[in-house]
Amino acid sequence: MSTHAISSPRIATSPRRNAAPDTPVRAGGAVREGVLDFAGRSVQLDGGGIGCTTGWYFGVTPRRDATVLAVSARAWRAGEPDAPTQAHAAELIRRGVSVLIVDLRRTEFPWSAWIGCTRERVMEAAIGYLEDRGYDVDSIDVAHAA
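Structure (tokenized):
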């Protein structure tokens, strides 16, 4: 794994996530040579009064598992997640795991807590977004890229 922080131990240890998919994975041209294609994948997460938070959803079929990649300010370059974060997401997509990348930069300001835009609430909104798309809560992992 790369040097960015990964907080979910299940990503590295789950046999379902590490095995090659049994059926072909379709992600609709989401990945080209380890770089993600963000065009048309932007979603607005608005849950629990946090205001709009941007995310990018890379759904694969057939739907099995999903991972939320929470990206903080240190893992951004030129307006998009940095190369290690994109490579991590691309590998998950290749293995048949849907990925929701969430921009956490808004939660890092001192005033964020005052308006209720905390990391926890943003992550709840992200998990809620995936639940609305039919994913089971038990099949959703959260990883942080710092």
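Confidence is low (pLDDT under 50) at residues 1-25. The chain has one domain: 9-145.
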